[in-house]
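As a warm-up, study this chain.
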Amino acid sequence: MSHPLTRMDPVRAIYLAALCLILLGAVLTWQTGEVQSELLLLPALAAAGAYTLAPQLRWWFWKRHPPDLPTDLAPLLDRFPLYRSLDLAGKRDFRRRTFLLREATDFQGMAIETVPADVRLMVAASAATITFYREEFLLPGFENVIFYPHQFPTPEHDVLHASEMYPGDGVIIWTLKYFLRSAIEPHKYLQLGFYEYARALFHIDAGVRSAVAAQSLTWEEIHRLTDFSESALKGFIGLEDIDRNAVTLAVFHSHPEGFAHRYPERFAALHDFFQLPATR
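Now compare it with the structure written out below.
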């Protein structure tokens, strides 16, 4: 069971403490006839400051006491092979990383009123998978995620497509139904969360790209492993220029058993580079 601190909202705690002090000040003022200004004014100022700095306060607290995910959301993580392979401590670490990545990400919907909680969780879990080997697992510069209800064009790619990572604005863009299909059924569709976060990681750390490129699968090998042909992958994403190294890293995580069976040496090299659990 998580320690109570890990479930605390620090801003709410400040509000409650301020309210208690203000009530105490009001009672003492009524009983003594003297205005208890310190107990009335200072807590009100603290609450106002907490309201203004709420995101920063929560982030500061959560980084030191990372919360676990609510139990109703945690089962969604069983769709992620890395999570399933971890022991209890590893699973807890994965869930807490997923929580922090979700809170660090700004989700926006275009013609979508709100991005559903399960979608936000699967985005964060995709990022947590790709960066699990890193102590600093956040992806600075890629904290913005946009969802469209349909395929979209952008200034960078003036064709309808379903997935894009744009470093210039630090944004990853997906078509909602395509992302959901890929996250729920990664054996039928390329897992777009793994793919785009792999590309983001390559952009942040060129050494990772080099390490993956040294073990990269050819399009024919990817097809044999996944049944995803090069043309099918391009059709699914909607772009002609797709990153084979990022696809390799995506299927390394979405098809670990098949990858290890068909290409054991390259799987072992990637497994060792990313320092993943031996039980995987």
